[in-house]
Specification:
By secondary structure, the protein is an alpha/beta fold. It contains five helices and seven strands, in the order αβαβββααβαββ. A hairpin with a 2-residue loop joins strand 2 and strand 3.
Length: 138
Amino acid sequence: MRYLLLWICIVAGLYGEEPFVVIGSREFPADHLTQQQVKQIYLKRMRFVQGVPLLPINYPALDPFRNHFEGTMLHLSQKQLKRYWAKEHYLGQRPPLVQASVESAVAFVREVKGAIAYIPASQLPEGVRVLYREGERP
């Protein structure tokens, strides 16, 4: 338990409030997404772009970077999201796929045409398309 708390503190220090970008593969069927579209994708209300199924990627529930993203983009707390996904479960919907790290999320996005993930802007790699930048206005 102490190691988990230590890990959370380390990650919080690394990613806490760092700006994020939402990325897709180079073959992603859109050049840009709005904040509202990103929200709809992560709440699984928007499931396709130009006929391509969307696969949003998330991080573990206690990840501070995930909490920052969900608060900024979805405007929902962990408690609210837990209730939301409990309700959606009864409707046959599952929450976004979870990847353990930024590196695994990027690798998944590069390989899956409809996958999107949010990552720290400072860790933006080659070979992906930036679909949204935190703070961007329409």
